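Practice set, problem 2.
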Amino acid sequence: MNKMTSECFKLGIPDYVTIETEEGSAVVSTANREAGWKGTKVEFTEASGYEEVSITSVDAVKGVKVRWSYQWPDKVRFLGDAWERGYGDLEWRGMSGRRIMPWYFLAAVPGEAMCFGVMVQPRAMCYWQGVRKALRCTWMCAAAEEEYCWKEGRCMRQRSYVKNILIIQWMKQ
């Protein structure tokens, strides 16, 4: 009988982050586990078994795209979710950069499977894309809780966006 084993697989710090606000957008590289542009900051925190991503901004954030360089194995197949529910249309498919996989997905080659997903808080939507030599995760942010903080001697409004937890598990059979 085959026995499944699992071990934590961490993508680490992403190579690029695209921040999109009402003011425009910018592609920024990550440094010291964070990326920022104008009044928006994206932070990456490593924890046991997962990565946490938090977004804070003084601007209204429309979305954040995170990209990791990753070489997918040959003949990899993907099983993704549907936005609300599957209507008998979920299937293992090959790689397509146009395919959107909401919330979580599986990537498999014979004998091995990788599981990627998020535990997302309210007010955000998330989807994954497996593309050639990379993995992308996109958060579409909605209204955020507004907080007020003192900065540079004055009270400033700051929007605190969701904390998203990336759960990445590697399973072998």
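Problem 2, part (b): a different protein.
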Amino acid sequence: SGEYTLGNPFRLAIDQNGTVYLANWADGARSGVYKLNPETLSGDLEPFFIGSHASNGTITNDAGEMMCTSTPSVFIAGTGANTHMYCHLEDYNNDISQYNIGNEDGTIMENWTAAPTRLWGIGAKLASTHGAVIGESQDGGIWVVQNRSAGNNDAGVPSLIYVNPEGEIIFNSGNVDNPIHDYLSGTQYAAGAISPDGTELVVNQPDGTLKFFALEYTRSDVPSLTYKYDYKHGVGNTVTQINYDYAGNLYVSAGKLAILSMPTENNETTTPAKKDYIVTKDDPTGINNLTVDSNKKVVSVKYVNVAGMESSTPFQGVNIMVTKYDDGTQTSTKVIK
């Protein structure tokens, strides 16, 4: 889009403001992560990492520090000042890089010009050059999945690992004594996700089957996975990304898109919203020749909320105030209490 045309935008992430981040898995001048404003999807992309691009995709700043490389993945965790971005550095020892992109005032940085906040030092276990962070624990540990073909979930190059905040790999799906080892043949295209409440983990198998596991932490940062069930999604084997929405529904992205409604105890979700709203009254614009008949008398007034309920007094939140007049006409006005 615009000046920056991406040849291989492999995955995306979204921050608290709705800004979309695209990981371009490519060498040369178009490597790294690019931003897209969701309000202008046809507008120009903006590079998040500002620096010089080497032919292999490595991006450096003016001080010669490595910032990012060609990357197959980008992941955003947290909100406000605690917002973190993670990338898989294909051209820097297959390591995972972390960028603390939240400002102290809770806003998100517009771009990045420094070395990564942290290099996790786990590239020896990510030898496929194609991996992705799929979750961050409350204690700051990370879940990483990588591309493994059928039969190749090995201890040396496992399908799935958990790295605690100290940088120790304390969960390795390739270990034969790991409870989920026999359930994972591989993890095609490194696709996986963790539910919004942190209690479920899912990964994609080479045969196009989703494997679901219950996730819990036996101590503050020691995870445990228990097999739950399989599901054949039917959108092909080239699944590159899996995402849960806030309600826990699952989106499986490949050549096609599958949207799965995931069962819960009561199949209901409460979406958080602001308790108070500030309504600013501005001078009206674009209204001409407005005439009000002063002889009309109000017969009745009722308020209707977003659920369709009616009342003689306004509901908390958004209302439609319906005013009826003695000549049979009526007006409708939006009112926020």
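Answer key, part (b): The radius of gyration is 25 Å. Residues 145 and 160 are 5 Å apart (CA to CA).
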